[in-house]
Amino acid sequence: MMWYTNCSILITSNYTSTIMKIHENNALGELGSAIGKGLIAGLAATVAITISQMIEMKITKREPSEAPVKVAKETVGVKPASPELKEQLANELHWAYGTSWGIARGIIGLTGLKGIPAALVHFGSIWGASMLMLPKFNAAPPVYKEEPKVIAIDGFHHLVYALTATVVYDALDAGSKREKGLNKLAKKLHLKSLLKKVS
């Protein structure tokens, strides 16, 4: 039984050492991790903006936006054959677009920004892209031709998105940073050599 315990301690210490080396200076791994966390944050933020828009549409009696379908028609020539397919395409594009903007949040996270500053940069990126892209593809009028109320509502929805993405991203990132902190602590305490002495 003692032999088995000593072997498992040795294997565990070798595994821990290998994991610590993988986490050290791995830029590609950091990028992949940021993108993955960003996609999860983008999905959560898309849920939040969808709920925000649904509530607002009930209050204002506004119809769902056709902007995603208009952009798809202008960029790749997609034209749904029926109103049902049009709504389905708009919905799919909304979810894909919203989730993919989480990648930007991941990249912002790589700069070290978090919390409100990161949310503001993300918000500016998303809303700015929307204000430039939608008029370019005839999916919405230019911002200077919109009513202030429409601009405020659109800004609010994008703020909901950015804040949700930041809360989720920062929560996911804090977990991985705690793991890295524990690995650094283990290295500082020389746990590998301590484990060898115990065995």
Order of helices and strands: HHHHHHHH
**Number of self-contained structural domains:** 1
Which term fits the overall shape? elongated
User: Helix coverage percent of residues?
Assistant: over 70%
How many H/I helical runs?
8
| Class of secondary structure makeup | mainly alpha
Beta content: under 5%
Let me know the number of strands: 0
- The rounded distance between the terminal residues' Cα atoms is 12 Å
Low-pLDDT runs: 3-10
Rg estimate, integer Å: 24 Å
- Quaternary structure state of the chains depicted: single chain
Mean pLDDT: 84
Main pleated sheet: none
Reconstruct the topology from this structure:
Elements: H1 2-23, H2 27-60, H3 67-76, H4 83-100, H5 102-110, H6 115-136, H7 148-188, H8 191-198
Helix pairs in contact: 1-7, 1-8, 2-4, 2-5, 2-7, 3-4, 5-6, 5-7, 6-7
3D structure, described in words:
This protein starts with a helix and ends with a helix. It contains eight helices and no strands. The chain has one domain. Helix content is 82%, strand content 0%. It is elongated, with a radius of gyration of 24 Å. The chain is an all-alpha fold.
